[in-house]
Amino acid sequence: MSDNHSAQAGWLGTGRMGSVLIRRLLAAGTDVLVYNRTKARAEPLAALGAKIVDHAPDLARAEVVFVMVGTSQDLLDAICGPAGLLAGDQAPRMVIDLSTVSVEASRQARTELAERGTEFLAAPVMGNPRVAAAGRLTFALSGSPEAAAAARPYLDILGAGSSYVGEGELARTVKLCHNLFLGVVIQSLAEVTVLAEKAGVSRQAFLACINNSVLGSTFTRYKTPALVNLDFHATFTSTLLRKDFDLGLAAAREHEVPMPIAAATHQIVQTLIGYGYGDQDFATVIELQACASGLELISENAEVHDGLEPDGRETLPPVPRQGQSRLSADNQNQPRVLGTTN
Prior knowledge:
Low-confidence stretches: 1-6, 311-324, 328-342
Number of domains: 2
Strand content: 5-15%
Distance between the termini: 63 Å
Shape: globular
């Protein structure tokens, strides 16, 4: 460790996911310096032991700085901008970026950091804030093998494992492929769930069967409460999913890889946003599917668990929901016009 750096970790970006991960570092006894562009959003972390700094360059005195922001431009602004991490005289030894951004933005950030002698590790996360809170988050890593090895003690605190996929920006492509698959899976799950319900099977019973089968996964289990009880508070919004589909399909064009199923799903997500669901969780695709099928969706108000607790106990209480879905049909034979309300 150099004389110019402390053993503290820095953190830039305290959105839904970032705040959860900062809490995990603090709970493990790590000293954390925190910066967020809107300072008020970071201040609740001070009560847990984080030190809130006024400017992004103030984080540079830490040995390692984590970045978690929303878009490619946000990453470049956070690191290279006039008020960014590198705007001061000091630079951290290593920056670990957990965001989902383009290969081009990641490469530019790496170049700028290298000019200041800072190692850069691309480490996009896979999972949502509830997965993170349960310690089940995973990471794809790319950069130098030495940076990946140095980062692992921190990443082991933050989640359940990391996979080194190679040099440079390869982790960005892995994460985009992951999120393309995520969108395709939720659309497929919505389709078969609506089919089962219209045939007379409750969503709770159908999804319990899927989750207990060879097709069940961490993802299908933690989305089950949302699909059964129509609880669509955002863990990952449709707008963010569209952004990742834009990036993923652009990568597919660059590499001349046809992706017909992903392309169709992209348009379904776009339709969902067009009807005003951009800021809600992407699981609202089930509402679009139900409306197209002439099915009225009503919360089953059932006790279902999300599979994130080690003993499988209920972790999300049922959320009562009055009436029917905004996108559902008035009855099974008369689909209403999408986007209208009762």
